[in-house]
Specification:
It is built from 45 helices and 31 strands. With 1238 residues, it is an alpha+beta fold. The strands form seven sheets. An eight-stranded mixed beta sheet has the order 1-2-3-10-4-7-6-5, sandwiched between helices. It has a six-stranded mixed beta sheet with strand order 16-17-23-18-22-21, with helices on both faces. It has a six-stranded mixed beta sheet with strand order 28-29-27-30-26-31, sandwiched between helices. The longest helix has 24 residues, at 910-933. It is globular and about 90 Å long. It starts with a strand and ends in a 12-residue tail after the last strand. This is Peptidase M16 C-terminal domain-containing protein. Residues 228-347 form the Peptidase M16 C-terminal domain. One of its GO terms (molecular function) is metal ion binding.
């Protein structure tokens, strides 16, 4: 070990797996407070992180701005899909991927050098996160050798950045020659600051923390304050906080216990470290002594005005009180997550919900704060909701007396719908929500906890086991609050900022190291302990109550004020000032060029050998449909058993083929998946009940004289909770492919994770739910409403708008790009577009706009049918029949394009692996046979369906609230489809429009603009049928060279110093830009997000393409070093993906035609290593030229704020003034809402 450091502490983190703990060692510099924390975690990944406490006392966003100014970070990924984590768990968190050109440092004064070094060392470009009280810089790579190579460059950029006016102008704030306010930080925060969760978070913190606390301010900055920020303030802020005495270096991953290479680098910097200024000690003040007693209302910008939120806050325990914090987290988790908790029953899980969701967490402030937010609280009349509730049967206890609503019992249990009107009328009274919450918490302590004690204890035990089992997956996460990096960073910050730790001689690292033991110990506490916990922290503590209310006019007003300021600026600026401003901008744009000396790049250490990177050890056993009788007459073309020694849990990923499913049923697939994952009961015919329930561990009784056995949702959910640590269902072979606009149609997959002994039982339960779940009208309606709500949350904001719009335009249909190209808003004859919408092909595309409209029609029909509306009864019956037909498909499918994939930790040989697989195949056959035994086949000719459809012998397989007509849907018999396992079907058609078509849409919810461009992509990817030509023989010709060259080229363009990102992001036109080849869906896409100037951003992209079109421009921009860096990044992404989710990635490899991960890695490395500059050039000319070729088929979507400096006609004129003959049309978003008739 280095003579400059001493081993100060030793601790560990429980692995959660029963395997060895992860050791933690803290090395302290002998003369300063600088520390190196090393946590050894097995696996290929190596984290290198630097944590610095950063405090702010204004809204100028200096911590965030400094991060951008030092590293020119492109974006703060605010985790829109993880708002609960960002707001309720982590505190105010901002993630900034460092993927643009960096400014340089005193020792390395070259823009982009830090990115080049990171990419060269089997790692991703440097990353950073800004929190309310700390900034964490992170490098992630595949070797400690690479981390040691990167460390000196990173430290020099952090401690000695070149903060110059040129970078400040583009990254933070400037006014261009047209008076438009621009800058990456400004554009980013212009969108973020007015979102609902940002408004409620900031206002909540300002009401409980004093102005001398960092938590009372917006660390990212507010737009009006960013405008007044100066570069001198940023430099002074850096001097105050950025010192080795304040910095903690954290190493997590495959490191030695005292990594010599790291300490060699630090010894070379010892003089600088020893001379560091005194350490920061700034204890945060306590919360305000007085809180507002009444409800405080705040507005947020929203295009629609239906829902807002109600938020409550309490002061939490000190940051050092780990036991109380963990106990509160366990209690909060139960109240928030358990579907039967009184909090859920009172507010969300009731016939007329008074909240759509619950966000509840202990925020890591100093001191901590407990925050509960009820989201999607309706701010509209409840007439329709009350009518729907009235149709729902009231399930009251037998003999229960009538009671006035809301009574304590009804608060947390069955609702008296006859009193519902009073409940609705008082919903927005000043203290109504507060009273209902206090009533629920009081009832919880006085009655509920005692009456449901066994369930409560069982839940805590299950959750501890679940979190423990999943810890291996999240331990290395950069963002997860349970990740080791976040926990160790909090330990460092608490030592600097907490009053309870400021006087301590040293920080305590690994404070959460024994989390699972502590959770188990707390789970043994008696009922009195938990009652006292609720009483002390919720009922006895003061409570803050705020409401965030939607204002559809706010966004318009903000944009109008911004436009007014722009006009005022241009009217008052004199010629000399205008010239000075233009000179400044020209200098700033010139500084974005990357000019790293070739000699400096050549002197870098060689890239670490990818062959030395250790992948998880595993053995795979494959079983093929054509060679193994086990899979004959099953849906599975291949079976795979993966043996991963040391794996904590066993997993299954069973993919059922969708080949042959009628396109008429495609729109129902997302709904069917939702039903499979929704809490429902089971309806099983008595004739097969014993067979299908055997070994399921579901307790049941058989009522005499009843043809059906009904198991309620609590029974089923309890059994699944016992058997499964994690489970999900999704469309496609990779989780996440079912995102809107990206739905492949090859397979439907069931995934489960559990203990080895429960593996088969877990699959049985999911199969039973899939085939025998109580998918009645009320259940379908509930699932459809939930799915619609999720899709609506994605719609109309950000890049998802672009991703969702393109499939609708791209895929042929009556309202595709060709139809819109003929649309003239000034010609009344083309207003008949609505007729095209109404007759849209039913299975045209599984994109977001179709799904929302489809679900709207579905929920309307089902709601009316439940209220005895016979006019819509036929539609309701057809919807229910469609779900049955999907089950029919799975019960009869033997197309042999599915995959049965199982991962276990131990298996002695292939025979045992085959036996394991056999039990799964047999289990599915038993379940599907049982379903078929109670249905008969009816076949007739000349119908649109492609497979035999079965109908039920007994139509009333559940009991809906009305008498259901007995309709029979019949389809023709046809031979099963036989496809090879690697045959893939995708939505690859591309409506050819010449000249290229663009649509311009406006949204009141946007404060910045978004641009998307797509061109067709048809490229060879993966091997052809290996039954005809062996993989080795195919590999000799490198058939995928073009596709891998395209992927490497996209990495080059997307890199921080890449031409495309530099041209757009580096100049401050937008803060996000990415190029994405999507071979499955047949397109190459460019997405530009948070654009302050969409016209300049688009023009900059075209300019780069034109530059690269010419040989001279290409040779200047692309070289061997960049190709090597792209290879390094590609390897990093591939290997980390496999390390984090081996079974999913392995399944994906099989669907792509490989025998597993092993073959894919060999295939991939052979191609990537063989790629040359000439291959990149060929890929560019082949795939990117359509972006700048007149008449080539391409599609554009430009989404802007509703009010812009230019008029709509003027902006459209500017869009159409392009050199590529792209014709843009202004389209109202409602045009993309088809009227679906079912």
């Amino acid at each position: 070990m280095s003579n400059n450091y001493v081993l100060e502490q030793q601790s560990s983190y429980e692995s959660g797996s029963g395997n060895s703990d992860y050791p933690v060692r803290v090395y302290k510099h002998k003369r300063t407070e600088f520390r190196v924390v090393v946590c050894q975690v097995p696996g290929p990944i190596c984290h290198l992180a630097m944590c610095i406490p950063t405090v702010c006392l204004d809204h100028k966003g200096k911590p965030h701005t400094l991060e951008h100014s030092e590293y020119l970070t492109p974006s703060l990924c605010h985790l829109p899909q993880q708002e609960t984590m960002a707001i309720a768990d982590l505190g105010h968190y901002k993630q900034a991927p460092l993927t643009v050109v960096f400014c340089g440092s005193e020792k390395y004064p070259y823009r982009g050098y830090i990115d080049a070094v990171s990419s060269h060392n089997l790692g991703q470009p440097l990353n950073a996160s800004t929190y309310d009280d700390m900034t964490v810089f992170k490098y992630v790579g595949l070797s400690q050798e690479g981390a040691a190579n990167v460390l000196p460059v990173v430290l020099d950029h952090i401690m000695h950045p070149l903060i110059q006016d040129s970078q400040f102008a583009t990254e933070v704030y400037h006014v261009d020659q047209d008076g438009r306010q621009q800058g990456v930080v400004l554009s980013e925060m212009s969108d973020f600051a007015y979102r609902e969760h940002a408004v409620r978070s900031l206002n909540m913190r300002q009401l409980i923390f004093p102005p001398t606390s960092t938590y009372a301010w917006e660390c990212g900055g507010l737009p009006q304050s960013i405008e007044s920020l100066s570069i001198d303030e940023v430099i002074d802020y850096h001097k105050e906080f950025y010192s080795y005495n304040n910095l903690t270096l954290i190493l997590i991953g495959a490191y030695d216990e005292c990594p010599a290479a790291i300490f060699n680098v630090l010894d070379g910097l010892d003089d600088e470290i020893s001379a560091a200024p005194p350490p920061l000690s700034r204890p945060m003040p306590p919360m305000l002594p007085k809180w507002s007693k009444g409800r405080k209302d705040f507005l947020f910008a929203s295009e629609k005005s239906q829902t807002g939120s109600m938020t409550f806050a309490w002061e939490g325990p000190p940051a050092e009180d780990i036991e109380t914090r963990v106990a509160l987290e366990m209690l909060i988790d139960y109240l928030k997550t358990d579907q039967g908790s009184p909090l859920r029953k009172r507010f969300t899980h009731r016939p007329v919900p008074i909240a759509g969701g619950i966000e509840f967490g202990l925020l890591n402030y100093i001191p901590t704060a407990i925050v509960l937010s009820f989201t999607e609280v309706p701010f509209v009349a409840y007439i329709s909701h009350a009518a729907a509730a009235a149709a729902t049967p009231v399930k009251r206890r037998v003999g229960a007396p009538a009671m006035t609503y809301p009574s304590p019992a009804d608060t947390c249990g069955p609702l008296d719908l006859s009193k519902l009107h009073d409940d609705v009328n008082g919903l927005f009274a000043s203290n109504y929500y507060r009273k209902q919450l206090v009533s629920m918490l009081t009832y919880f302590t006085e009655h509920w906890l005692s009456e449901h004690w066994q369930h409560f204890c069982s839940y805590l035990s299950k959750r501890t086991a679940c979190i423990s089992a999943k810890f291996a997956d999240v331990a290395m996460s950069q963002k997860d609050q349970q990740g080791i990096l976040y926990k160790l960073s909090r330990d460092a910050v608490i030592h600097r900022l907490s009053p309870g730790s400021a006087s301590a001689a040293q920080p305590t690292f690994g404070s959460h190291g024994h989390l699972f033991s502590l959770r188990r110990e707390l789970g043994q506490r008696d009922c009195a302990f938990w009652k006292a916990l609720v009483q002390k922290w919720f009922l006895n503590e003061r409570m803050l109550h705020i409401a965030t209310i939607p204002d559809p006019k706010m966004g318009i007003q903000i944009e109008a004020e911004r436009n007014l300021a722009q006009r005022s600026y241009m009217e008052n600026i004199n010629p000399a000032e205008l010239k000075a401003m233009q000179t400044r901008l020209e200098k700033a744009l010139e500084s974005t060029k990357v000019n790293i000396p070739h000699d400096l790049l050549a002197a870098l250490p060689p890239t670490p050998d990818i062959a030395l990177v250790q992948m998880p050890r595993f053995t795979g056993y494959n079983f093929n449909h054509s060679t193994d009788s086990l899979l004959v007459e099953s849906p599975f073309g291949m079976g795979r058993v993966l043996v991963v020694p040391g794996e904590v849990e066993s997993k299954f990923q069973i993919s059922f083929p969708l080949a042959g499913l009628s396109s008429e049923l495609w729109p129902y697939l997302p709904l069917f998946v939702k039903l499979v994952t929704t809490q429902v009961g089971l309806v099983i015919p008595h004739t097969v009940a014993d067979t299908v329930l055997q070994d399921s561990c579901i307790m049941s009784t058989k009522p005499s004289g009843m043809p059906l056995l009904y198991l309620n949702s609590e029974q089923v959910d309890g059994a699944m909770s016992e058997a499964l640590t994690e489970h999900k269902a999704f469309i496609g072979d990779l989780y996440g492919h079912d995102s809107s606009g990206q739905w492949p149609i090859e397979v439907l997959t069931l995934f489960g994770s559990t203990k080895r002994k429960d593996l088969l039982r877990a699959f049985k339960l999911m199969s039973l739910k899939m085939m025998f779940g109580d998918f009645g009208v009320d259940t379908i309606l509930k699932a459809a409403n939930l799915l619609k709500k999720e899709l609506m949350a994605k719609r109309g904001t950000g890049t998802s708008l672009l991703i969702d719009t393109f499939p609708w335009l791209r895929n042929p249909g009556r309202l595709d790009a060709t139809a819109i190209a003929k649309y003239d808003p000034l010609d009344s004859s083309t207003h008949a577009m609505a007729s095209h919408i109404g007759s849209e092909s039913f299975g045209r595309a599984l994109n977001l706009y179709y799904q929302i409209s489809f679900l709207t029609t579905l929920t309307r029909s089902l709601s009316a049918a439940m209220n005895e509306d016979d006019m819509l009864a036929t539609e309701a019956d057809s919807m229910s029949d469609a779900i049955t037909q999907i089950r029919v498909h799975f019960a009869n499918c033997n197309s042999a394009t599915g995959l049965a994939h199982i991962a276990v930790s131990k298996c002695n040989d292939g025979a045992e692996a085959r036996d394991t697989l056999s039990t799964f195949v047999s289990e599915w056959q038993a379940c599907s046979n049982a379903w078929r035994e109670n249905h008969q086949v009816v076949t007739v000719p000349a119908t649109p369906y492609e497979l035999p459809t079965l109908i039920s012998n007994n139509r009333r397989i559940y009991t809906p609230p009305r008498k259901r007509r007995k309709a029979v849907v019949v389809v023709p018999a046809k031979e099963p489809i036989k496809l090879s396992p690697n045959s893939r079907v995708g939505s690859r058609d591309f409506s050819a429009v010449s000249p290229p078509l663009g649509i311009h849409v406006t949204l009141a919810s946007l404060q910045t603009s978004y641009v998307g461009i797509q061109v067709p992509l048809i490229a060879q990817r993966d091997p052809s049928d290996t039954r005809l030509v062996s993989l080795a023989k195919q590999l000799e010709k490198r058939p995928d060279t073009d596709m891998y060259a395209l992927q490497l080229l996209c990495i080059l363009f997307n890199r921080s110093e890449g031409l495309v990102k530099n041209a757009i992001r580096g100049r401050g036109y937008a803060y996000g830009v990415g190029i994405h080849p999507n071979n499955n869906n047949g397109n190459l896409a460019v997405y530009i997000s948070h654009a302050g100037d969409p016209l300049k951003a688009t023009a900059a992209f075209w300019d780069v393409m034109e530059q690269l079109r010419h040989e001279a421009g290409w040779n200047k921009a692309v070289n061997e070093f960049q190709l090597g860096a792209a290879r390094s990044i590609y390897y990093f992404r591939a290997y980390t993906g496999f390390a984090e989710s081996l079974i999913s990635e392995d399944s994906n490899c099989i669907f792509r035609g490989f025998s597993g991960v092993e073959e894919f890695l060999s295939w991939m490395r052979s191609h990537v290593e063989d790629i040359k500059i000439a291959d990149l050039r060929r890929a560019f000319l082949k795939y990117f030229m359509p972006f700048i070729t007149k008449g080539a088929p391409s599609l554009y979507v430009v989404a802007t704020p509703q009010f812009m400096p230019e008029t709509g006609a003027e902006f459209l004129r500017q869009l159409n003034s392009n050199a590529y003959s792209a014709r843009f049309k202004a389209v109202d978003m409602s045009v993309l809402d088809p009227i679906v008739t079912i």
